[in-house]
Amino acid sequence: MRPGPSNTLTDVAGLRVGHCTRDEPGWLTGSTVVVAPPGGMVAGVDVRGGGPGTRETDLLDPRNLVDRVNAILLGGGSAPGLAAADGVVAGLLDDGIGWPMGTPDRVVPIVPGAILFDLGRAGTWRNHPSATDGRAAYDLASDGPVAQGSVGAGTGARVGGFKGGVGSASVVLDSGVTVAALVVVNAVGWPIDLATGALYAAQLGLAGEFSGVGCPSEGELAAARERYAALPDAVPGMPGMATTIGVIATDATLTKAQCQKLAGVGHDGYARALKPVHTLFDGDTIFAASTMAKPPPELLALPFLMEAGADCMARAIGHAVLAAQTVDRTSEGGVAMRSWRDAFPSAWRG
Question: CA-CA distance, 50 to 52, in Å (whole number)?
Fold first, then answer.
C-alpha cells in the first residue's frame, strides 16, 4: 500500500475541502467543509465521545430515508459554531445542489456536521464561527491538497499539552481503491507516549512519511509534562473542552450501513494515536463517506478497507500534530499552546 498523490482527503476523486480561518485579534477558531461530488455521497457516522456537538446525525442512520449528503461541516465554536453549517447550506442552494424535491429548482441541501470546543482561547468568549464563515469555507473548497495544521476548524485546537489542528492522510489499496481521512484534533488525550515522547502515529507511517520524527530529549519531555500539569484545565479536564472530529472517505461503493461501520472502525485510529480517548470531556465523532466512483468491494475485502481507514485516521492525527503552529494569546486574556515541533526540537529531523 502507498499514500495517494497528495496524501490528503482530496485523493478521493470528486471531494473538495475548504477552510475558513479566524485568527485575527480576539479570534482563534474556524470552519472546515468537505464538499461532495455533484451527485452527493453516501455517509454514516459514529459518535463515541461523552460531550458531542452534532447536526443531522440522526439522518445518517441506515434505517432512515435520505441516502446522500452534499457536504460535511467540521467546526470550532462549540454548540454556537454549528451555525456555520447554514452558510454551507446557502452555498449549496445557490448552486442548485441538494436532495431533490420534485422540480430542479427545489432542493434541500443535506449537511451533517460536528463541532469542537475552542471558545475563549483568544480571550473573547463569544467569538465563534457563523453562517458567514461556513459560506466562506464552502466558497474556498478545492480539490487540491488539503491545508493542514492551524487552519480552519483546527485554528484554536489543542491536543494534550500541545497545539492541535487539522491533519489528513490517504492510502491506495492494492485493488486501486483509495481511502483517506481528514481530522481536527482537539483532544484531552496525548498524541505521544509520555514515557518516551514517541509520537504514537509515527509507527503507522507509509513510504517514510514520518521519517523525520524521533524521540525528544528527556529534558524537553520533562518540560512538556510540567507545562501541561500547570494548565488550569489539564487534570481532570473541563466538560466540553476537547473533541476530535473527522471524516473517512473512499471511492469504493458502500451502503449507508457499511459507511456507519467504517466510521465505527475509524475510531480505532483515534485510539492508536491518542491516549486517553473517548473521554467524558471529548465529543469524538467520525463521519464516513463513499463517493461511489468504483465498484463495491468483495465481502472479505471490506474489513481491510475499514482497517485502512482507521490507520489513515491515526496517520492524519500525526500530521495534524506535526503541522500545528505555536500560538500565544495570553496578552488578550487567552491561552498559549506550544506546537510539538517547538516543544521537541531535538525530535524533529525533517
Answer: 6
Say what the pLDDT of residue 49 is: 81
Is the Cα torsion angle 21, 142, 6, 190 positive or negative in sign?
positive
Cα(136)–Cα(18) distance, integer angstroms: 8
Cell of 116: 469542537
DSSP assignment of 86-114 equals: HHHHHHHHHTT-SEE-SSTT-EE----EE
| Interior angle at CA 13, CA 12 and CA 16, nearest 5 | 85
Distance CA(319)–CA(293), nearest Å, equals 27
Q: Return the closest-CA partner of residue 269 out of 315, 320, 323, 209.
A: 315
Cis ω before 236 (30° cut-off from 0): yes
Average pLDDT along the chain, 350 residues, taken 10 residues at a time: 96 98 97 97 94 93 94 97 98 96 91 96 96 98 98 96 96 97 95 93 95 94 84 51 93 98 98 92 93 96 97 98 96 93 91
Cβ-in-10-Å burial (0-12, 13-18, 19+) of 140 comes to middle
